[in-house]
Amino acid sequence: MNLCHPDPADLNQNEAEEFQNIKWHRKQLLEDIQKLKDEIAEVFAQIECFENAEESRLVQKEKELCIGRKKFNMDPSKGIQYLNDHKLLSSSVEEIAQFLYKGEGLNKTAIGDYLGGRDPLNLKILQAFVDLHEFANLHLVQALRQFLWSFRLPGEAQKIDRMMEAFAARYCLCNPGVFQSTDTCYVLSFSVIMLNTSLHNPNVRDKPPFERFVSMNRGINNGGDLPEELLKVLTSSKTNSLVFGKRLAD
């Protein structure tokens, strides 16, 4: 069915006025539709602009984060400062510890070096970092494996000492009653690390026997000896070998 516009000449006055009224409303409707289209187009343009700006901001943030990680791997303190300055990491001890614990893109040697620092801030961060580890119901080797995987032990004896003291305190807190003191846990942890190094070092031909390990740890439990059953579990190298944190590629 074809619809065609009526010839105004064929319309009476009322019909002609109605016809003009319809034409005027049609024009207004078309103008309103066009205006709405323009407004929608403007909204979409603003959304696209916002998305592009947000994408650009995220790209810039990721770029700065990458730079911060590289700086950390070269100089941990400068890397943390860079991340603080660019608002990518707050100065909160807990947040910095969480950043190191996650370790995304971070060199584990650099993490260990930073955590072993003697400055008051480093000591607080070390404590917060250790507190992120859950050692409940783990025997000592399992806990050491988890702990030493999260970073690489630094070469400086004083740094290692501070880190192992923090580990021993945390382990005893998570496992009350296993050892009579944190000193016992501390000494035994060092013995386990030394034993593990000897057992898995191909250059060491004469592997230390279990009896030597027992002898090394006599009297460390507040003057008493630890149960041999516990020591046997810790020296079962086939199932309980330590895996130290490996160095990440820069």
Structure description:
- Residues 19-53 form a coiled coil.
- By secondary structure, the chain is mostly helical.
- Mean pLDDT is 83; it is low at 243-250.
- The longest helix has 62 residues, at 13-74.
- Helix 5 packs parallel to helix 7 and helix 7 (157-174) crosses helix 8 (182-199).
- It contains 11 helices and no strands.
- The chain has helices at residues 13-74, 76-85, 93-102, 108-115, 120-131, 140-149, 157-174, 182-199, 210-216, 228-234, 237-240.
- The relative contact order is 0.08.
- It has 2 domains: 22-89, Annexin V, domain 1, CATH 1.10.220; 90-240, Orthogonal Bundle (Arf Nucleotide-binding Site Opener, domain 2).
Fill in the keyword field for this structure:
250 residues, mainly alpha, Annexin V, domain 1, Arf Nucleotide-binding Site Opener, domain 2, 2 domains, guanyl-nucleotide exchange factor activity, Sec7_C_sf
What's the helix-strand series? HHHHHHHHHHH
CATH class of the largest domain: Mainly Alpha
Taken from the alpha-carbon principal axes, the silhouette is rod-shaped
End-to-end separation:
76 Å
Please tell me the total number of domains. Answer: 2
The helix-and-strand class reads mainly alpha
Major sheet details:
none
List low-pLDDT spans.
Answer: 243-250
Number of helices: 11
Rg on CA atoms, Å = 35 Å
At CATH level 2, the architecture of the largest domain is: Orthogonal Bundle
CATH superfamily of the largest domain: Arf Nucleotide-binding Site Opener,domain 2
Could you report the average pLDDT, rounded to the nearest whole number? 83
- Under CATH, the topology of the largest domain is which? Arf Nucleotide-binding Site Opener, domain 2
- Got a strand count? 0
Protein name: Cytohesin 4
GO molecular function, one term: guanyl-nucleotide exchange factor activity
Coiled coil: 19-53
Organism: Monodelphis domestica
